[in-house]
Write a structure and sequence with these properties.
The protein is α/β, with parallel strands linked by helices. The protein is built from twelve helices and 16 strands. Helices cover 31% and strands 19% of the residues.
Length: 397
Amino acid sequence: MSWRPLVGRQPRILLMNFKNKKMTEEIMYDYLIVGAGLAGAAFARTMTDNGRHCLVIDRRSHIGGNVYSEVVEGIEVHKYGPHIFHTDNEEVWNFVNRFSSFNHFVYSPMANYKGELYNLPFNMNTFYALWGCTAPEDARKKIASQKQKYGIKEPENLEEQALMLVGKDIYEKLVKGYTEKQWGRPCRELPSYIIRRLPVRFTFDNNYFNHPYQGIPTEGYTKMIEKMLDGIEVRLKHDYLKERAEYEKAVSKIIYTGAIDEYFDYCFGELEYRSLYFETEVLDIENYQGTAGVNYTDRKTPYTRIIEHKHFQFGKDNAEKTVITREYPAAWKRGDEPYYPVNNKKNVMLYEQYRRESLKNPKVIFAGRMGTYQYYDMDQVIASVLKLAEAEMGNKE
């Protein structure tokens, strides 16, 4: 099913018919936005509100990119993994609230280590379960004594970095197995920078994020993106890379939110990513695990976490069924969805080659996670494209 929310103001003329290779006017849109996810939708909305004509295309069959959600058995399901909106950026918070109200959901996941349950992030509830500590000073001393035992000053890998930060117990039960599954290799073979810090709180606070603004769109992310794209022409199942020459003739400028190395046909080599795959089940019970997210931190369990979607909306959707998703990390290969850039030294240098190459064509601007090879939270994605839009409007004045 194609999504086409074009209402109100029409674009100057229709997009050319690529099958006939005919074009009735050289320039038809101010911007072509490749990708109908959060980055593309936010940019298109901002530029449209400022009088620019935008066309959004996506090779998927739905809008929303990886924040896409769909209703299953009356429950809003996060199809590509859980997305909890959180930010301390008031401008971004005001922007998203134009398109949805947000509930007061606060992410408070649990960790399951071989059947033992611990609160995340590491806080006094965690330390009580680990060591029986009831006072912050006792927990501080316990961690300090474990850190001192190793005496690591300049960690050479992720394992040494973690031991230096939190000591043996937290590392072995709550960091090691989960991290090795996520990255597909032993912690001793991973660079230390991946965990430059680990959040440790000496309060009884299970709020995973520190940001003042948090929540889930009350009607789901897809509805939020739908409203963001209201009045903007969107064409799905359109693969820009297969028709790039024709598209470049049809627009003034292109915002590309796909993978930058794919755009250049991997001419300098492949950037590395980690991927994910999901197993989703509908269960004939009201409540499976009692919380939205449980991380499985032992190495033997093949998945990293189980998400129970109804808890994002406080379980109000269906009293007889629930939907759970097991999330499995995977090595990435061409054709897979890239989720996490592997920002080690080799890949940062390779990305820089692609970035320099991109500057040769000022008509194309790369944005979003994949376009800039950065791991962004949702609020960071929006902040970056709002800044880009501001720069573009300045250039047009």
